[in-house]
Amino acid sequence: MMQLSQDLIQRYHDVIESLGPEALKEMLQAMHLIRAFEERAEQLYMLGKVHGTMHLSIGQEATAIGAANAMQDGDYLLNHHRGHGHCMAWGSDPNRMMAEFMGRETGYCRGRGGSMHIADVDSNNLGANGIVAGGIPIAVGVGLSIKMRRTNQVCLVIFGDGAANEGAFHEALNMASIWALPIVFLCENNQYAMSMPVEKAFNIENISQRAAAYGLPGITVDGNDPLAVYSAVSEAAARARRGEGASLVEAKTYRYKGHSKSDKQAYRSREEVRDWQDNRDPILRFANLLVLAGVITEAEAATMRDQAIATIDEAVEFSENSPEPSVADILDGVYA
Amino acid sequence: MMQLSQDLIQRYHDVIESLGPEALKEMLQAMHLIRAFEERAEQLYMLGKVHGTMHLSIGQEATAIGAANAMQDGDYLLNHHRGHGHCMAWGSDPNRMMAEFMGRETGYCRGRGGSMHIADVDSNNLGANGIVAGGIPIAVGVGLSIKMRRTNQVCLVIFGDGAANEGAFHEALNMASIWALPIVFLCENNQYAMSMPVEKAFNIENISQRAAAYGLPGITVDGNDPLAVYSAVSEAAARARRGEGASLVEAKTYRYKGHSKSDKQAYRSREEVRDWQDNRDPILRFANLLVLAGVITEAEAATMRDQAIATIDEAVEFSENSPEPSVADILDGVYA
Amino acid sequence: MPELRELTYAEALREGLRQLMAEDERVFLIGEDIGVYGGAFGVTAGLLDQFGAERVIDTPISEAGIAGACIGAALTGMRPVGEIQFMDFVTLSMEQLVLQAAKVRFMFGGKASVPMVLRMPGGSGTGAAAQHSESLENWFVHVPGLKVVMPSTPYDAKGLIRAAVADNNPVIFVEHKLLYKTKGHVPEAPYSVPLSQTQIVREGTHLTVVATSIMVSRALQAAEQLADEGIQLEVIDPRTLKPLDDAPIIESVKKTGRALVVHEAVEMGGFGGEVVARIAASEAFDYLEAPIRRLAGLDIPIPYNRELEYHTVPQVESIVREARKLVKGEY
Amino acid sequence: MPELRELTYAEALREGLRQLMAEDERVFLIGEDIGVYGGAFGVTAGLLDQFGAERVIDTPISEAGIAGACIGAALTGMRPVGEIQFMDFVTLSMEQLVLQAAKVRFMFGGKASVPMVLRMPGGSGTGAAAQHSESLENWFVHVPGLKVVMPSTPYDAKGLIRAAVADNNPVIFVEHKLLYKTKGHVPEAPYSVPLSQTQIVREGTHLTVVATSIMVSRALQAAEQLADEGIQLEVIDPRTLKPLDDAPIIESVKKTGRALVVHEAVEMGGFGGEVVARIAASEAFDYLEAPIRRLAGLDIPIPYNRELEYHTVPQVESIVREARKLVKGEY
Ligand SMILES: Cc1ncc(C[n+]2csc(CCOP(=O)(O)OP(=O)(O)O)c2C)c(N)n1
Ligand SMILES: Cc1ncc(C[n+]2csc(CCOP(=O)(O)OP(=O)(O)O)c2C)c(N)n1
Ligand SMILES: [Mg+2]
Ligand SMILES: [Mg+2]
Q1: Residue C299, CA atoms < 13 Å, CB-side half-sphere
Q2: Which residue in A40, A150, B287, C316 is deepest, having the highest Cβ count within 10 Å?
Q3: What pLDDT is attached to residue B10?
C-alpha cells in the first residue's frame, strides 16, 4: 500500500466529514465497478464478443466519481466517447450498460448506440457522444432550458483535453458566460487526445486558463483524486445553482490503456504509463486514504474489487442471455 | 478643427519620424479615398445602380490604413465583409474596385464577387469574405505555407468583434500559436456585430484578452488612431517575421453607417453615433495631428477630400464605361 | 364575397410564430439579430417587445452554438425555433444538426426526442453573391432523422411553421429570400398545414412539373403562358421534402406521361434527382412518354452580377422553354 | 507470366502519397494523428519518419482549422493533402470547404486556385455506429467548384490520389474503411488514373449496375452469382463522382435496357438520384425496358448492433435479389 501523509488527510478533513463514511465507501466501490466493467469490456473485445470500438477510462475513475457525486438528483449529464465511467458514476445499471456494449435489445439504447452512445434519459443522462466536443454546445441548450423552466437544476458536461480545441468549446463557453447559464464544464485532461499530447496541442500550462477568455472562473485540480474533483465540481455546481453561471473545471488525470482498440501507443513510453499506474492510481490512492482516515478497514478494501467483479459477471450473464435486436424492427426509433 | 494636445504629438514623435512626411500624407490621403469610395458606394446604391448589399466602414478608416502601412510588400492580406477600406489601404486600384462593386467585367473579380469578395491575388490580397470569421482558418494555411516555403512573409488577417465568437477563431488562434505561425490577427472591434453590442456578446473587457487562452500576446489599441494601429501591427508583424509567431491586436473603432443597406439601427442611439463622429473621427483627428505636427498645411488638408472625390469620380466613370460580364461566359472560372 | 385577408410570407411566418409563442410557453426563438433588429429579413420584428428577451434570444455569431442550444433545450422539454440568418451559414451547424439532432433519438434506442425547428432563408436573386445564396436543402433530405420543409406561399408558411413546431423531430425549415415580400391569403386563426402532404397546385394534363419554393410561382407563371398555347401543366409542390409524400407525384405522371422537376438548387446532386428516381422506379414508369427532365441551378456558385445571377437559376422563360420541349417531344 | 505485385488499398494510398511527397516539395500532409500514430487507419504510417514533422503535420482536434489550413496553403503555392479522420467529422469543415475552397476561384473571377485534396474514410461495417459511419459524398457532389473522387480498388486508390494531387481544384477524396485491407494489383512505378473517367468493370448484357466504392466489389460478386443463372450484369464504377463522366453509363443502358444504381449512402437525397436522373433524361430513355432502380442505404442512422448494421446497407445478397428482379421483370 502507498504512503499517504496525515497532512493530506487533514486537508481532506472537511470534505470527508461532509460526505460521510457511507458515501465515501460507495464512491470507492463505484470506482472499482467502473474499472471492473472496463477490464471486462476489454476482455470481451479480445474474445471477439463485441464488434466496433471502445474507449476505456481505466485510470480516470476518480474524475467520474468525484464529479457525479458533486451533482444532485435531477441534474443533467452530457459526456463523451470515453464515457463508461461517467455513466456508471451517474448511477447507470451495469446490466443495461453491458447489454448495450454487447449490442443487445435490453441495453440502454436497444443495441443501436453501443459503447460511444450510452444514455439514460430517465436519469437525465443525456448521453455519451462519439463526436469530440459534440455535447458541449448541447449543454448550452440544457442550461438555457433550465433557466427558462426556472428549475434548480445544473448541467454537467464532461469532455477531454482534445475537445477544448474544437470551435464548439469556444462558442459554448462564451454563450454560457454571457447568459450566466447553470453549467459545469468539466475538462478531463488525460494528457493525450488520441496520440496528441497536450504539450503539443496547447501553448498554455492549464486548460482552465481558457475560462478567463470568457469571463468564467476556471480551476485545475488533481483528477486522480476524487475528493479534489468532488470539491471543485461541488463549488462550481453551487455557483451555478445560485444563478451565478458557468465554470470550467479541469481535472488532470491519465488513461492507462490505448486510445481505442487498435492503438500501438507509439506516442508515449511504457515508463510514463507505469509511473502513473504505480504512483498515482486513483483507486489505490483513495482506498489508502479511506483506510488511513478510518472510513474502511483494510479487509473491507480488499473485498471491494471482488464485489465489483461479481456485479460485472452478472451483467455479462444478463447481457449474454438478452436477445439481439430484431432486424424486423430496423426502422424503429428514427422519428418520434 | 478639433484640439489636439502637444502632449499627444510628443507621444507620436517616434512613429511620425520613422514613417516620414510623405508616408503620413499618403496615409491621410488614403483615408480620404476610402471614405470617398464608400460614400459614393452608398450613393450608387441609393440610386439603384448597384444590386446586392454592402458593408460600409466609414469611421473605421484608421484601422485599415494603420494596419496596411505596417505590412511589407509580399505580405498577405485576408479580410472580411466590411473590407473596402482594407483593400484600398492594401493598394487596390479604385477603378477596379468600383468596377467590381458595380458588377463589371473589369472589376477585380470580373463582376462575379461584388462588394463582399474583392480580392487582388496579384498583390497577395487573398480577399474579403462574406462569412464571418471565414478568413481566419485560411490564415493558418497561409502561415504554414510561409513557414514551409521559408520566405519572410507575414499574413495579416482582419475580422470583426463578432467573428471572435465563431469557433473558427478559436481553432485558428490555437493552431497559429502551437506552430508559431507568422500571422497578425487583427480584430476590428467596431462595437457591434450587426445589432449585437460587444457588451452583450462578450463577458470580458477587451477581446485581446482572449490571446492569453492560446499563449499569444494580445493588445488593444485605439482603432481610430492610425498611428496606434500602425505601431501595434508593426510590432506584431516584426515578431512574426522574427519567427516568434502570431499575435492578436484589437483595434477599437466605430462604424457610422448601418450594418448593411437595410439597417434601422434601433440597437443604438443617434447620440452615440454623433459622439463618435464629432469627437473621434479618425480622419479629422489624423488631419489635425499632421497639421499640428507640421507635416501638412491646413490648406493641403483642405484639398485632400476633393482630390479623393475626383479619383472616385474617375472610378465611377471607368466602371460605367466598362462592360457587364457576358452571359455566354457564365460557366467560366469555376474550375482551374 | 368578403375580401380575403392578405399577408406577406414574412408576416405570415411572424403571425404563426406569435400565435405559437402565445399558446405555448415552451416555444422560444433563438438566433442572430432576431431581437431588436427583427431578423435580417424582418421575420421576427416586434416579437422581442411582445415576449421579452428570454424568449427571443439574440446570440453571438456562433452557428454551431445556436444549433446546440436548440438541441439541448429540445431534449429537456422546450420547443426551440432557431434561426440561421442565411442558409449558407448552416454549413457551420452541420455537425450538431446531422450527428446530434438527427441521430440522438435513434442512437438512444428511441428514448429521446428533439422537437426543434431551424429556420433559414435560402436562394439567390438579391445580389448577395456566392456566400449568401445557397440552396442546400438536399443535404438535409439525405439525413435520416431530419425533416425538411420548404413553403412556397404565405399560407403554407404560416401553416407549416405551426406543424413544424408541433412535430417532435428536428425540422429544417427552408424559407426563400425572394418570397418574404410576396403576398397571399392567410387566415388569422391558427391552422396547420400537415407535414409530408404534397399539394397539386394546378391541374393539367400534358406535363407534371414538380417545383419547390420560389419555383412554384415561376412554374405557375410558366403554366399560364403555356396555357395560351394549349399546353396544360400540372404543377405540384411537395412542400415537405422529407419525408416526401410522393404518391401524388407518381399519380400525376401516370396521368400526364411526362415530368419536369424544377428547383433553384444546383442540379447536380440535388433534390431533383430524388424526385426523378422516385418516378423512374415507380409504376409511373410504364406511362412515361418522354424522358424525365430536371431544370435547376447551373453547376456554378451564384454570381454577383445581376444578369449572371438571373441566368444561373430557372426563370419563367426557361421553365416555359423546357416544358414546351418536353411536351412537344423536341428534346 | 510474372506474378502481379499486390498491395492493400491503404498501402496503395501510402505509396501514392510517398511518391508524390518525394517528387514535389509542395506536397504535405495534415490531419489528426497522422504522424506517429500513422492515421486512424494506418494510411500514413511511416511517412513522418521519412518526411519529418513539417510535412506530416499532426493537428489538434480542429476540423475547420484543418480545412482552412489546406485552403490557405493551397492558395499560396503549396499542395496540401488533408485528412479528416472519419468522414463524419467533415460536418465540422463544411463552411471552409463549401463557402471557401469551392467558391474562392469563381468569386475571385477565376484568379485564384485551391489545389488541395481532403481525404476521408466513409462507410459502415466496423461497428462504429451512427457518428462514425457516414457516407456523405453526395453533399459534395452538390457543390460547384469541388471534385469528388471515390476509389474502389487499390489500383485506383494509388492512381487517383496522384491525379487528385495534380489537379488544381479542391478534391474530396472519399475512402472506405472496409476497403483499406482489401488487396489488389498495384504497380510500383507512379501512375495516374485520370479524374472523371468512368470505368466499365465488368461487361454484361442484361442490366447496367452503377456502383461506387465498396459496392463495386459487392456488385461484382453479385454478378458472379447471377452469371450462374445466365444473367449478365454490366458493372460500372464512376470512380469520380464529380465531374461525372456519364457517357459510358448512358451507353451501357442503351445496350442493356436496364439500370440499377447501388451505393452505401442513404438512398434518399443520395448520389443514386443523380445517376438515375442522368439516365432518365438521356437518349437511353428510349431503350429502357424496366424502371430504373436504386439500391442504397436505409433511411436510418447506422446502428451499432452488427446484424442491424449489416442490414442497413446493400450486401451481395440484396444486390443479387434486386438485379434478378429487374432482369426478370418481377418488380
Ligand atoms: C470531431 C471529432 N474529431 C475527431 C474524432 C476522433 N477522435 C475520437 S476521440 C479522439 C481524441 C479525443 O481526445 P480527448 O478529447 O482528449 O479525449 P480522450 O480520448 O483523451 O478521453 C479523437 C481524435 C472524433 N470522434 N470527433
Ligand atoms: C458565419 C456568418 N454568420 C452570420 C453572418 C451574417 N453577418 C454578416 S456580418 C455580421 C456581423 C459581423 O460583425 P463583426 O464581426 O463585428 O463585423 P462588422 O460587421 O461589425 O464589421 C453578421 C451577423 C455571416 N456573414 N456569416
Ligand atoms: Mg484526452
Ligand atoms: Mg463589429
Answers
A1: 16
A2: B287
A3: 77
